[in-house]
Amino acid sequence: MPAQIIDGKAIAESVRNQVAAETQQLIRDTGIVPHLAAVLVGNDPASEVYVRNKERACLKAGLRSTLHRLDAATTQADLLELIAALNHDRSVHGILVQLPLPKHLDATQILDAVLPTKDVDAFHPENTGLMFQGRPRFLPCTPAGAMKMLEVSNVSIAGRHAVVIGRSDIVGKPMAALLVQKGVDATVTICHSRTADIGAVCRTADILIAAVGIPEFVKSDMIKPGAVVIDVGINRVNERLVGDVDFTAVSAVASAITPVPGGVGPMTIAMLLQNTLKSARRC
Question: CA 79, 106, 73: angle at the middle one, nearest 5?
Answer without folding.
Answer: 50
